[in-house]
């Protein structure tokens, strides 16, 4: 059974940092890209970042480029999102999601339950 | 920038509805990587359509999709009360990554 479990959410002040983790199981970790998608309270979905199966490629939305860093730990089967210089507008539920195929782009067949990050003074 | 979806659509049980998702030649028009998601309040999204027209295993065949130029479409036939949800489209944008639409809230009257 494929499982994705996010952790690391919580409250942080503007300008602060937070590190989210996504623990993956139930599939061959190296074969699939993992992405982070966020949803601000009462708002729509926003793609944040993605990393290819072999970590050869990392991608970021313009809204987080230069502030967020995605990485992959093959020994732990986890994907992390290091979030620095956080802003109030980064407040959201952060989901990690797995691509359906190794060739997919934006077709996320499994999602975690999400972790809430609140940026507030 | 975000793909453009109508804020809301509605239909009666048994009817068919089609919702649109409009982008540009850089995203929808330039790639066959358009997916659609269904989301209920407080729940994670569910993949309904991938690669423009592909319906993953387990998704009802009442859901279908297509693309023409820079616009993608999701059609739901034989509307059911449980189809009431918010639907999001997403497209690959090439080197930039991915972009979602703003979402369409479907009301089944």
Order of helices and strands of chain A: EEEEEEEEEEE
Return the structural class of chain B: mainly beta
Measured as a percent range, the helix fraction of chain B is under 10%
Distance between the termini of chain A: 40 Å
Determine the structural class of chain A based on helices, strands and strand pairing: mainly beta
The fraction of residues assigned to DSSP E strands of chain B is 35-45%
Tertiary shape of chain A: globular
N- to C-terminal separation of chain B?
32 Å
Tell me, what's the shape of chain B?
globular
Could you estimate the helical fraction of the residues of chain A in percent? Answer: under 10%
Overall pLDDT confidence of chain A: 96
Subunit arrangement of the protein: heterodimer
Largest sheet of chain A: 7 strands, mixed
Number of helices of chain A: 0
> How many beta-strand segments of chain A?
11
Which residues of chain A sit in consecutive blocks of at least 5 with pLDDT less than 50?
A: none
Largest interface by residue count?
A-B, 24 and 27 residues
Order of helices and strands of chain B: EEEEEEEEE
**Major pleated sheet of chain B:** 6 strands, mixed
Mean pLDDT of chain B: 96
């Amino acid at each position: 059974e494929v499982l994705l479990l996010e952790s690391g959410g919580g409250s942080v002040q503007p300008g602060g940092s937070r590190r989210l983790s996504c623990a993956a199981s139930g599939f061959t970790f190296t074969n699939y890209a993992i992405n982070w998608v966020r949803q601000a309270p009462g708002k729509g979905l926003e793609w944040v970042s993605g990393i290819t199966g072999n970590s050869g490629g990392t991608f970021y939305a313009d809204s987080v480029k230069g502030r967020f860093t995605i990485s992959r730990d093959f020994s732990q089967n986890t994907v992390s999102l290091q979030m620095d210089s956080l802003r109030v507008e980064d407040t959201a539920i952060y989901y990690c999601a797995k691509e359906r195929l190794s060739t997919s782009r934006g077709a996320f067949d499994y999602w975690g339950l999400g972790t809430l990050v609140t940026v507030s003074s | 920038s975000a793909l453009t979806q109508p804020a809301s659509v509605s239909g009666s049980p048994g009817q068919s509805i089609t919702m649109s998702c409009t982008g540009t030649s850089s995203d929808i028009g330039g790639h066959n990587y358009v997916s659609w998601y269904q989301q209920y309040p407080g729940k994670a999204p569910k993949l309904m359509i991938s690669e423009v027209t592909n319906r993953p295993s387990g998704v009802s065949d009442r859901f279908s999709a297509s693309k023409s130029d820079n616009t993608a479409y999701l059609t739901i036939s034989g509307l059911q009360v449980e189809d009431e949800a918010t639907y999001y489209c997403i497209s690959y944008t090439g080197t930039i990554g991915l972009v979602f639409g703003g979402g369409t809230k479907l009301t089944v009257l």
